[in-house]
Design brief:
The complex is a heterodimer of chains A (288) and B (402).
Chain A lengths: L1 H25 L8 H19 L3 H30 L3 H27 L12 E4 L2 E4 H23 L1 H11 L1 H6 L4 H23 L10 H15 L4 H22 L4 H15 L11
Antiparallel strand pairs in A: 1-2
Chain B lengths: L1 H25 L4 E7 L6 H7 L1 H13 L3 E3 L2 E3 L1 E7 L4 H13 L5 E3 L4 H13 L4 E3 L7 H7 L3 E3 L4 H18 L6 E7 L2 H16 L3 E8 L7 H9 L4 E5 L2 H13 L6 E4 L6 H7 L7 E3 L7 H14 L7 H19 L3 H10 L2 E3 L2 E3 L11 E7 L2 E7 L16
Parallel strand pairs in B: 1-4, 1-5, 6-7, 8-9, 8-10, 10-11, 11-12
Antiparallel strand pairs in B: 2-3, 12-15, 13-14, 15-16
């Protein structure tokens, strides 16, 4: 039982890491390789607020979210929209976006090095045990999991039931047709990209309470997010959640029952199996 | 008013002079020192604590004194820095560039065992003395035989493992370690694997039983399964051959699990100031790699200067050794000038006065006297085991996590 709970807690962390990229890649069609850096920047902000002003990361996220939203909106409008405009097809946009955001990740790492230094940053927030069903877990992980649940629920409800959400889904499914029914494709794409960035940064702020980060750890998170998004199905919120939880539980099962050395192998085996048998992802639609 | 104007004028002149000085000096009399180490990539966090601040500190101190003593004159130093992105290919390119394009007079050894070994052939080809600090290996004899100018300052793998076993044996003798069960984990990376491999027979010889033995991948985001399983094995001592992010992660989980343990050891980064700051009272009694004698006058002066110049405290291990390697270089240049092979020969043959005390090298270019195990005691990282350094403190038992 405790294995399942640890696995779900880890899965919640993974959902925080991957949800933003899912919006950016699935809806805005930008394969954002600087996603991990946005996460680390969110973590830095939480660290800074906590150590300088003893402000809880749970409050910091309300600052991080709008700032990250604005920053990502500007990034999309200034840097990525010209790529969208000139791309003749989706393949070309993908290649251009990968190259552009790959470069952006280096710039972001450089900026963070300049502003925060290359040192590890770590702080103690809710690093106390909490007992669930007779077993102990780290409270900060439980809190991050709860936050992940809240964020995913709000996002899912908004995308499923609201009108702007509907247009985002339309965009994810068929960007060409979305335009025909009067959806402002570029405006919506910018919103989706900005929202994705904001969620990633909030995830970073929460994760920093239990993971030790430094300026160049972002790429590890980008990779994990990429695996989860592709496993879950590009552009589908439910898919990302299920894939994140699945990955968390499988990794923890392997670590607890077989050997912690095999967690990476297990993660990639799962990834390969999904790619082999459901190449469109768990919840993805088969492309026609 | 006139006073003010004069002060402003003076400041302006000083500023202009300081801006102009390095450029004027560039022509011939600056000594160029190359430095290549990670500023990004997996080892950047460690290099930002241990490597870069010491280069900055040393250069600023040398220049504040009026420069390096070279052949009876004084010459300012200029540091040329390259980021190798924790990528051996980049390390090699940067060393090549420093040697052929920048014409560096000397090059500070890179950071990390793998990166040092990758760069060793180039240091050798261009005859640079290679004073490797952050490079712990059991291949010292072979490497120094192959690369005559490669020196080893920080220690060898086996010496580190032996010391940990000795510390635990000493605790058994004191009666503070009441059993022989050891839980051992390691990061699945060259460093962790090498240490764990060396540790297994040494623990067995000393009469310890390894009740839990596992590895975990570098960058594991949840170490709670590892700590839960280690705790379930009921060990008297917990030993982790760990890297910085997992050193933090394991310790946080051990606190959450309230692991009842008499000796708790994590390897790299336990000595970092960030570790003490992060865990506060819970860090009390935690053992880690390295150690220093924080009470020695030389170390105190060094730590104060480190704080004043770089704005951060040195770590309790390789920081001081990195600084010592630059002191060795400085003293060797003062003795024989900028002739690289002359400097190498001088380093082999001489005794140096460093922040760690006097330093010499054996026939394998190995500094045989170094710190091996440290422990957080009353908020200070104290050396508790060494191979010939003064000031080791008695080991304490780990008493809870409060």
């Amino acid at each position: 039982m405790d294995i399942i709970i640890i696995g779900l807690l880890l899965g919640g962390t993974y959902a925080l890491i991957a949800m933003g990229l899912n919006l950016q890649y699935g809806v805005a069609r930008i394969m954002n390789l600087a996603n991990g850096e946005m996460l680390v920047a969110g973590g830095f902000t939480a660290f800074w607020f906590y150590t300088a002003g003893n402000i809880s990361p749970l409050l910091t996220i309300f600052v991080v979210a709008p700032v990250a939203f604005a920053a990502n909106w500007l990034i999309f409008r200034i840097m990525l929209e010209p790529l969208v405009r000139r791309a003749k097809n989706r393949g070309q946009l993908e290649v251009d976006a990968i190259l552009a955001t790959f470069g952006m990740s280096f710039i972001t790492v450089g900026l963070m090095l300049a502003f925060f230094g290359g040192d590890y940053f770590t702080y103690a927030f809710l690093a106390v045990p909490v007992t669930i069903l007779g077993d102990t877990y780290a409270q900060n992980r439980v809190v991050a999991f709860a936050a992940a649940v809240v964020i995913c629920a709000i996002l899912f409800a908004w995308i499923t039931y609201s009108r702007p959400g509907l247009s985002l889904r339309a965009l994810a499914v068929a960007p060409q047709s979305a335009r025909l029914v009067g959806i402002d494709v570029r405006g919506r794409a910018a919103i989706a990209f900005a929202l994705g960035g904001a969620i990633t940064a909030v995830g970073g702020a929460l994760i920093s309470s239990f993971l030790t980060l430094d300026a160049s750890t972002g790429v590890a998170f980008t990779l994990k997010a990429l695996i989860i998004v592709i496993m879950g199905g590009v552009g589908d919120v439910r898919g990302t959640i299920v894939a994140a939880l699945l990955l968390g539980v499988v990794e923890t099962l392997v670590a607890s029952l077989i050997d912690p050395g095999l967690t990476l192998a297990a993660a990639y085996t799962l990834f390969i199996l999904v790619l082999l048998f459901r190449p469109q992802g768990l919840f993805g639609r088969r492309t026609t | 008013m006139t006073m003010k104007r004069r002060t402003a004028l003076k400041l302006g002149v000083a500023a202009a002079a300081s801006l102009a000085a390095p450029r004027l000096a560039l022509a011939s009399d600056v000594v160029k020192i190359g430095a290549v180490a990670p500023k990004t990539g997996p080892l950047a966090g460690g290099a930002a604590v241990t490597q870069w601040p010491n280069i900055t500190l040393w250069a600023s101190q040398v220049n504040a004194k009026g420069g390096l003593r070279v052949d009876g004159a004084q010459r300012m130093v200029e540091i040329i820095e390259y980021d190798d992105q924790t990528n051996p290919g980049e390390t090699i390119k940067a060393v090549q560039r420093l040697a052929t394009q920048d014409n560096a007079d000397f090059i500070v050894a890179p950071y990390g065992t793998g990166l040092n070994i990758a760069a060793a052939p180039l240091f050798d080809r261009y005859k640079y003395p290679h004073l490797a600090v952050s490079a712990i290996t059991d291949q010292i004899e072979d490497l120094s035989a192959q690369f005559g100018g490669m020196f080893f300052l920080l220690g060898s793998t086996t010496a580190f493992v032996k010391s940990v076993v000795e510390v635990l044996t000493r605790m058994q003798g004191d009666g503070t370690l009441t059993g022989n069960a050891v839980a051992m984990v390691n990061v699945a990376d060259a460093f962790g694997i090498e240490l764990a491999t060396a540790a297994r027979p040494l623990f067995a010889q000393a009469g310890f039983e390894i009740v839990y033995d596992t590895s975990y991948p570098l960058g594991t985001q949840d170490l709670s399964p590892v700590v839960k399983a280690a705790k379930a094995a009921n060990p008297n001592a917990f030993v982790a051959w760990s890297y910085p992010p997992d050193t933090f992660g394991l310790t946080e989980q051990a606190i959450i699990e309230d692991m009842q343990i008499e000796a708790y050891y994590t390897a790299v980064a336990t000595c970092f100031p960030a570790f003490g700051a992060r865990f506060g009272a819970a860090a009390e009694g935690i053992l880690g790699a390295g150690g220093v004698n924080p009470d020695s006058a030389a170390f105190k002066a060094y730590a104060d200067a480190h704080m004043a110049v770089t704005g951060s405290a040195p770590d309790g291990w390789a920081s001081a050794t990195t600084y010592a390697s630059l002191q060795v270089l400085e003293q060797a240049i003062a003795a024989v000038g900028l002739d690289r092979e002359g400097v190498t020969a001088h380093v082999k043959a001489s005794r140096f006065d460093t922040v760690l005390g006097d330093m010499t090298f054996n026939a394998d270019n190995f500094n045989e006297r170094f710190w091996t195990v440290g422990q957080w005691q009353d908020g200070v990282y104290q050396g508790v085991a060494e191979t010939g350094r003064d000031g080791a403190k008695p080991v304490r038992v780990k008493q809870g996590w409060a």
